[in-house]
């Protein structure tokens, strides 16, 4: 049914697989083996968002289940599929799910997403989107893997802008998210030359007082 042309049956099949993917690693490995290719393909079918989103949930479950299922999905092209969607989607519910999937893959360390791909694709694309919690987590985990170094002179300032905009959105009330933001900014400024002046300019532009957070010594 998953490969048919009836969208209702496709959705039902995707929901069944999503339920199966809530099982153990062995169950996820079997789902990945027999249906992974179709799930990856259907995620890119943006004409049916309900099916695409359900398939994305299934893939997320398998990614987080362990290395075996992830190895199978990797061989089926999940990374190029996710990076393509990251490139074409803007503010969108599915984009949040794509970012969550990438975050889960980054939890495997650079086993599946190389440092080169993080530098060239993940960081520039993620920080170019409208900020949200999932994009912040992807940026943080990706930067942890690169030692907070960026590939070129444009990416670090773009990340700074992205994170400052997120601080404006969340305010001081969201402590955990604010701490994550400050950690990104502090490490970027420490590692990347020229980021400090850009950070100060962004904070002044958006009226962000970093001393308010008690974690950084700039305003």
Describe, in plain words, how this protein is organized in 3D.
InterPro entries: ARM-like, ARM-type_fold. It comes from Culex pipiens pipiens. With 219 residues, this protein is an all-alpha fold. The chain has helices spanning 7-20, 25-43, 49-65, 67-75, 78-88, 93-106, 115-127, 133-146, 155-170, 175-191, 195-206. Residues 215-219 have low confidence and may be disordered.
Approximate strand percentage: under 5%
Shape: elongated
Main sheet makeup = none
Mean pLDDT: 91
Oligomerization state of this entry?
single chain
What ranges have pLDDT less than 50 throughout 5 or more consecutive residues?
215-219
Q: What is the overall number of helices? A: 11
Q: Helix share of residues? A: over 70%
Q: What are the secondary-structure elements, in order, as H or E?
A: HHHHHHHHHHH
- Structural class label: mainly alpha
Radius of gyration of CA atoms, rounded to a whole number: 19 Å
Query: Distance between termini?
Result: 57 Å
The tally of beta strands, per DSSP, is 0
């Amino acid at each position: 049914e998953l490969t048919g042309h009836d969208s209702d049956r496709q959705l039902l099949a995707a929901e069944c697989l999503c339920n199966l993917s809530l099982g153990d690693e062995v169950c996820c490995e079997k789902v990945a083996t027999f249906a992974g290719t179709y799930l990856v393909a259907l995620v890119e079918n943006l004409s049916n968002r309900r099916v695409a989103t359900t398939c994305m949930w299934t893939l997320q479950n398998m990614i987080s289940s362990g290395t075996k299922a992830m190895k199978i999905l990797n061989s089926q092209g999940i990374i190029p599929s996710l990076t393509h969607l990251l490139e074409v989607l803007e503010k969108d519910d599915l984009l949040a799910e794509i970012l969550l999937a990438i975050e889960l893959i980054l939890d495997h360390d650079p086993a599946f997403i190389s440092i080169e791909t993080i530098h060239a694709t993940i960081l520039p694309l993620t920080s170019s989107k409208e900020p949200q919690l999932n994009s912040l987590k992807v940026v943080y985990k990706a930067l942890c893997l690169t030692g907070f170094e960026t590939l070129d002179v444009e990416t670090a300032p773009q990340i700074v802008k992205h994170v400052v905009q997120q601080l404006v959105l969340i305010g001081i009330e969201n402590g955990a998210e604010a701490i994550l933001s400050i950690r990104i900014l502090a490490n970027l400024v420490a590692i990347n030359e020229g980021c400090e002046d850009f950070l100060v300019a962004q904070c002044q532009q958006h009226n962000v007082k970093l001393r308010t957070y008690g974690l950084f010594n700039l305003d």
